[in-house]
Known about the structure:
Chain A has 111 residues and is mainly beta. Chain A is built from no helices and twelve strands. Chain B has 114 residues and is mainly β. Chain A binds chain B through residues 4, 31-33, 35, 37, 42-47, 50, 52, 91, 95-99, 101-104, and chain B through 33, 40-45, 48, 58, 88, 90, 92, 97, 99-100, 102-108.
Amino acid sequence: AQTVTQSQPEMSVQEAETVTLSCTYDTSESDYYLFWYKQPPSRQMILVIRQEAYKQQNATENRFSVNFQKAAKSFSLKISDSQLGDAAMYFCAYRVQKLVFGQGTRLTINP
Amino acid sequence: DAEITQSPRHKITETGRQVTLACHQTWNHNNMFWYRQDLGHGLRLIHYSYGVHDTNKGEVSDGYSVSRSNTEDLPLTLESAASSQTSVYFCASSESSASTDTQYFGPGTRLTVL
Lengths: 111, 114
């Protein structure tokens, strides 16, 4: 069975600094997709970034980037220049046919 | 703008009652999904549909049912609500079933079963 593990239940960072959230997954598939979703206090799940496993180049979206290590089955999210609005739960997810989520990391931004 | 909505946003019910949670999307997406979110479990798939009249069981389908009579709606029914079904429920949709396709989520429904 595919599993997704986020080993950091909580993280905190000073405003304007950089933080990295970790995610590992277990799969026997070679072609799949990985996502990071953000869930602010409003509970809305918002797509932050996605990565296709067949692409070696790491995905980036403005201040958000990933470090995708396929051999290690690792998919970390880096947030640069952290802003107060980045405070949220962040979920890593893996998809072949169905979307499988990690348990989430709660990110706090300290002003 | 296209969107996905859920109603009600909050619901309190009693054990044994039938409850239906609504999900409506205006993306014209073929695929719709229901998840529940509990502390320590992330989101878990309950049921999903790849088109009108198509429904499939997910990881935690016991005690839940869905029906898909049109493209826009996928209501989730709890036939006889149990306290273990107290949770936050999310509906999502995507254009196709391809792994490339991003799922877009509704705002969630918080259900409490007393």
